[in-house]
What we know:
This protein is an alpha+beta fold. 28% of the residues lie in helices and 29% in strands. The chain contains six helices and 18 strands. The strands form six sheets. Strands 3, 4, 5, 9 and 12 form a five-stranded mixed beta sheet that branches. β10 (256-265) and β11 (270-279) form a beta hairpin. α3 (60-85) crosses α4 (98-114). The relative contact order is 0.13.
Amino acid sequence: MSLLRDRINRNRNNVDIGLDHGAQAGRQRTVNLDGSYNIKKITGERIDFDLYHWLITTSWNKYWLTVFLFYGFVNFIFAVFFYLAGPQNIAGISPTDNINDFMQCFFFSNQTFTTVGYGGMHPTGLFSSWLASMEAFIGLMSFALATGTLYGRFSKPKPNLKFSRNMIIAPVGEVTGLQFQLANQRASNIMDLEATVNFSWVDNTEGDQLRRFKQLNLELSKIAMFPLSWTINHIIDEQSPLYGMTEEEMKRDEIEIFVSLRGFDETYAQTIYIRMSYTWKDLIYGAKFQKPFYVGPDGKVVMDLRKVGSYDLAELPKKTIEIGGGHAPFEIEGEMLDL
Length: 339
């Protein structure tokens, strides 16, 4: 009972963001750099594949490659059927040799599939007419599905934010702060952008290895407009779970920072959501971000997206505190230990 009470007390000030609390060794980052979850799902179904979802979410290169391969494959199959049924059953084809006859059947299949119908070729035999009717139906349905998925891809809000490759521990006055930087790579306007940052670490208390989560207080959690860059800053003070942690301790506890952004995109007229995460491998201890924008000769502000995330190494502030009476002062880089 006391063990359960201790666990509840440890979790009282934590948050649950819907991720696993396990602390398995060798575990990769939870959120990929593109915002997708680094999670493999097994449904147990015989065919574990959702074609529509894949066509909506896959890359443009894979999408167009799939469409063209499907178009070519269907026309090739029907060209084989038309050829086996006899090219003489298609008016407009003058039989010469096998290759030319098959190519003429293939071109006729293309016209039937797209319902173009130039008038130069048309089926004359009963079986060829049935094949043409079936292909025309498949063509109409295929183009309807392709149009729907194409519209779904264009209408789906897809923000293009650039995050700094690293998060840094930076000097902020006499204290330090955990910072990362982001900017909008598109000309679209994002309004009322709000950030939520959660800190995750491996808790080894009493040999109970669990991953804990705690929401970080931000110096500024919401901005009304987002035309330039935004450096999100968490002040490491006495209320911060990072207070007193050294770089070695951050690596030992395998810290991971989860970023969730929400804003209104004027182009899509919809609310957009963006995810990102940083691990201890992305941490630069003792740095300061460079300003990625400047005023040009004509007085116009220039936003250089190439400089988003660029940083210079910086010395962190040091504090000296007394430990007990008459003891030598104890100095720590960054923040004081929570004694």
